[in-house]
Amino acid sequence: MKLSLARSLDHWLQNRSDRTALAWLLAIIWLLLLGGMAFFWHLGSNGLLDETEPLFVEAARQMTVTGDWITPYFNGETRFDKPPLIYWSIAIAFHALGVNEWAARLPSAIAGLCLVSFCFYVLKRYGIAARAKKEFLPVKNRLSSPSQLWLTAGLGATMLALHPLTFFFGRLGYSDMLLSACFGGGLFAFFLGYAQTELPKARSRWYLVFYILIALAVLTKGPVGIVLPGLIIFSFLLYLGKVREVLREIYWLRGMALVLAITVPWYILVTLANGEAYIDSFFGVHNFERFTSVVNEHQGPWYFHFIVVLLGFAPWSIYLPVAIARIQPLQRQHWQDRPRSHHLGLFAVFWFVGVLGFFTVAATKYFSYTLPLMPAASIIVALWWSDRIAQTQSFRRPGWGFKLSCVANLIFLIVLAFASYYSPNWLEDDPSMPNIGARIQQATLPIMGAAIWLSSAIACLILVLKRQHHRLWGVNLIGFVAFLIVVAFPFSHLVDLERQLPLRQLAQAVTQVRQPGEELVMLSKGFPKPSLVFYTQHPVTYVLRPSRTSRKIRQILSERQSDTKSVLLIAPSQALSKTGLTPQQSEPISQAGIYQLLRVR
Asked: Which of 150, 131, 127, 135 is nearest to 5 (CA)?
């Protein structure tokens, strides 16, 4: 019988002890390949994506212009949504590499690569599944512990790098990937300290790293950067009955002093500079109100984040229920009897449930809120899959949980095939890119996407019928990577051409024709397009209703102190007739996509 890839790896590692260094070299190469594909490939090939990304990027650019690294500004107004770490990171990248999209997204890409690498390291150290019930698998059918650790680490890192949510946020200039890296890195560091009971010096160093990363999370997102990790760790320790024991070794008073020393100076300086306005906006609106009420119309049903996990962690999310059940987190006595080094799976369950539960309770729903639980999900599924792959000569048939997961996997792939094929029908509903359906059909992306997912489904069916269930993970990986390369990257480029390129073209036209003292107004249906501020490097007055456009322009002209008696207006061509502007008032200058640039007097 042919040896599986996992068993070949086991045989190779056991034959020569000096191959560990080579294994680490191959692991580093694999992590760089993962990071290159997920985070760095074509990182700056598309323009900034409205609406959120330009808010972060332009605020960072403003820091490089004004030299004010305390108070973030956007479009001439203070921006108190987030603390400064993401702005500082992007601004430093601008100083080093110039003001461009690649530099703006570099902090997120680096954060993603670091998080994936940290996940690999933790799983390589402690990634052996510990279950409540022993399984009497013959020794010949088991991988050695070192080999299974390598396998688990590779699976977990791959799943963490290659799923839709990480692919999206790891390639954009948002704060979310930086938060996930600090948040997840902090919890990883805590567990590394917690697990090393016999190495007090190493344990203390990892606890120190934990405090530093949690402080950076607070400088990225605010109080949630310490509150949520604290809840996860406390509930985990309380369940195991180890709260007092760990509090004594973690030196929490010194740790909190370190966190305060890193975070408080900026909060004091920004409060002194802006007073009550900062306190009300940041702590009131963007922290307390986001949890207790809906902010920025980001609302959804109570199960909103469950759907985000299903789609955002696809295709691996299909196996989360059976993987969590495999860990058997309700067997408390068993976990209390196990050594700390075997607690990674249980810790990941508390991490996963803690983040999901916290943001399910919160009133404001947004798909990025689930990103910090993705490392935990990757660990949970990696521990389960490593067992399945390692048992290639299984002593028993797969259980019903695994069988149902395989069926769900097959159905999910078929649904993705149909969704890809019919995607042009619902993509055309976006008024900012009315021709996107025709563009992707012309590029045959729907057909190629459907073919990839349908081929994956057929391969899964064949493997299930041949009882080679352990190979399903590879089919999902190949299908996802093929979809990324063949469909996702070209699709993102077409979206940029249809949705964002016209704004960049008109921004360039504005910089060429704008007269001294002439203001820029944009009529933007739906939501403002902040990328215009970044690409013109000039303040923009946004009007969201066509009927208010003429009145706003008259107000601007009446308040102007300069001799210039005109404004530049960017508006959707179809909305111009509703603005109340006459042909005598407006002079067309340029047109791109659905937008028109005019000079209005």
From this structure: 150
